[in-house]
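FAQ
Q: What does a multi-component entry look like?
A: The components come first, one per line:
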Amino acid sequence: MPELPEVETVMRGLAPHLRGRRIARVRVFWSKTIGGRGEKFFAPALRGRTVRRLFRRGKHVCLGLDDRSVLTLHLGMTGRLLFGIRPGHRKHLRLEIDFEDGTRLFFLDPRKFGRARIWAAGEDLLPSLGIEPLGEEPVEDALRGCRSRRAVKTVLLDQSLLAGVGNIYADESLFQARIHPLTPAASLAPARRRRLAQAVVRVLAGAIAGRGTTLRDFRTAEGEPGSHQERLRVYGRTGEPCPACGTSIRRDTIGGRSSHYCPRCQRAPRGGCRGRSRSG
DNA sequence: AACAGCACCTGTAGGC
DNA sequence: TGCCTACAGGTGCTGT
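Then the predicted structure of the entire assembly, as tokens:
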């Protein structure tokens, strides 16, 4: 569910409530939610710590603590971070963090794909992640450095290249850049590569402005849905007319993920779409 | 190296 | 109503 814009929105909602707060108690209700050194280490490492700052890295919400350790929270597909929950949501409660001032943070996660992990002071934080698409390093450079013949859609989802792009925004970016999702990444001409890089940045920034996309589960830290779903052009619009040319939006499975695109605006790559390469 | 397939999980929507 | 299947915003492992 949550991609970069949703995680950014959650983090921004949490920050004013958590900054400067001291952790009083941590309760784990589903042990597999805890990564790293595991559940036994988790609560003792957090108790008594004060949250200094919140930030986001890829799809992780990060809490920087006063001992310079970092708590990272990944929401998986259905994770929510809320300050209050309804009785019906109790069964999805995986983690609860109580602060000394009475603030209570609930981590709900029906599908249990979410993870919480502590990174020790000085430890390399989330080392497998690539660049931040909205950070200093240009997305275009990251794409240029990618020599892969994999489908560009698959490459956009590769967190070790661009951290934070998920299925919705990969499809939306490719549509905006008018690039077919099966185009081999390394075959993108410089102009199209630049167009794609610009599209990724624009799409992500636009989604943050809309406080994220709520298809079903996503909620801000205040419990409110995002609004960006209204602005999606192809994702989840299979069979609807393309907003640019009216052609029916297609949905194919690429790299195991549903992929939505306009077959007219996003032309198939030369040599066919299946990516079958001849050797030589 | 790259890729497909599946595992991890639960909930919901749609067809019958 | 119930049963069944398909599908879901993510990631990580295994085998080919």
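Q: Is there any commentary attached?
A: Sometimes. For this entry: Residues 32, 76-78, 92, 109-113, 148-150, 154, 216-217, 255-256, 275 of chain A lie near DNA strand B (CB under 10 Å from a C1').
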